[in-house]
Amino acid sequence: MRCFFVSASKKSRKLYSLFFIIIIKNIKDKSELCFKRGEIKTYHEERGFGFIQIEGESKDLFFHIIDFPNKNIPPKIGEKLKFLIVEDKGKFKAEHIVRLDVKATVPVAHNTNLYGAPEVQTSPRYEKAKSSTTSKIIPISGLIIIVILGGLVYNKYQSYQVQKQQKLEELMVEQQRIVADQRTAQGDLPMEGLSEQGRKNLENRGTELRSQRYTVNSENSEMASQSISQFKCDGREHCSQMGSYEEALFFIRNCPNTKMDGDGDGIPCESQF
Q1: For residue 99, which of 63, 56, 55, 69 has the smallest C-alpha distance?
Q2: If we measure between CA atoms, which residue out of 72, 70, 27, 64 comes closest to residue 47?
Q3: pTM of the model
Q4: What average pLDDT does the structure give for the chain?
Q5: Lower Cβ count inside 10 Å, N or C end of the chain?
Q6: Over the stretch 186-214, which tens digit does the pLDDT of each residue have?
């Protein structure tokens, strides 16, 4: 069968596509459509094009990245291809390229395009179910971990409480034993109060203490009255007019308009006495 070179003009592209569909439906062996084989000889990744070395021919064939399937996997030098040669603006190039070295990792659904090239598609429902299952597994596993940790903490707390109660009981038993040993060593103490003589001695001691306190208070009162009688308010107001600390203290406590306690702390003439 003679090979077809398809013109790529804008007006006739749809007609040629329809024409190929009719031919493919009537041809059992799709290899008769003159798919060529070759491998990538050069590829300029920055500009997105390269050349294919056709098997059995000396001339190289131009290709562009827009005609490549699986564009997420960049072309590599030496990669084997199957393609059709088409004419575009007076020049020949490769189209309907099949990448023979690229295999799908998850072949969910296989379709065959118009030129016999298998197309691999991943079911959106499968992807959605997979992501949903993963999102459910993560919270469940986290909840299980939290429950396990909570159980461990609770068991640790319970064992701590039991140990604490046991230590408390042991301490109480030890205290009771110590008290019993002391009672055994000292014997029973007589349950008697003070004797008559003891009570009299205690009362006499209290009377002596009260009389001593009265004597001291009397002496203090006499000393205070003597100091007060020594001084009198005569109109003096300043520290320079005082003869002693006691006189200054008397004046600020008993006389008006004194100027000897500037900070009001009740201590007169701090810098003088």
Answers
A1: 69
A2: 64
A3: 0.30
A4: 75
A5: N
A6: 765 454 555 676 667 767 766 766 666 65
